[in-house]
Specification:
Blueprint: E1 3-7, H1 11-23, E2 28-32, H2 35-44, E3 49-53, H3 61-71, E4 77-81, H4 86-94, E5 99-102, H5 107-127, H6 129-132, E6 135-138, E7 141-144, E8 149-152, E9 155-158, H7 161-172, E10 177-179, H8 180-187, H9 193-209, E11 216-221, E12 225-230
Helix pairs in contact: 2-3, 7-9
Amino acid sequence: MKKILLVEDDPNLGLLLQDYLQLKGKFDVVLCTDGEEGLKAFNKQSFDLCIFDVMMPKKDGFTLGKDVRKVNAHIPIIFATAKTMLEDKSAAYDLGGDDYITKPFRIEELLLRINAMFKRVAGKGDQNEEAAETQFSVGKYIFDYTTQIIANGEETQKLSTKEAELLRLLCLKKNTVLTREEALLSIWHDDNYFNGRSMDVFLSKLRKYLRGDSNVEIINVHGKGYKLLVS
């Protein structure tokens, strides 16, 4: 079942959309009523698609979209707003939005757009098998990128989104070098000093999670990047 994060500050409309998408679309829909609540939900759970109202208290939809893009560069985002200005539509796409629907809209149209979005995402996955790879064997561990869980027998560790994305890149490059620049640009979209220090913290956490297997090691490759060694 696909999981959708719906952030809408109108409680009546939010509940209506949630019920319809769960009933007709067969989606699991998590509803939040402001941008801050929406960002907290996004950071705690895994979603397949986001729908953000633009005009919201505490954190508007465009700002929420920017924050989400810092964490996940690929998740589809649909913006819903009463704004009809061309500049607003341009802003939605410039910050990484995938679609834009203007209020008032028919719920059936929103469902059509969501289904079309999932078809496009699936099509990209068919074209790029590597991008679609989500499960990895890492020594004694099984890493599921979709659920963001590392498992070693009955022991499991839930990863943050950035930890999961970084480990996935290392797994895709297993026993070869993942350059520092590639990792930063892929996950943080900027290879500045502060993002680099942030990535170092996540690498330390990943090393801690994998220390139960002496045959697994994440090493620094001087002047280049990192290597996930699995012997």
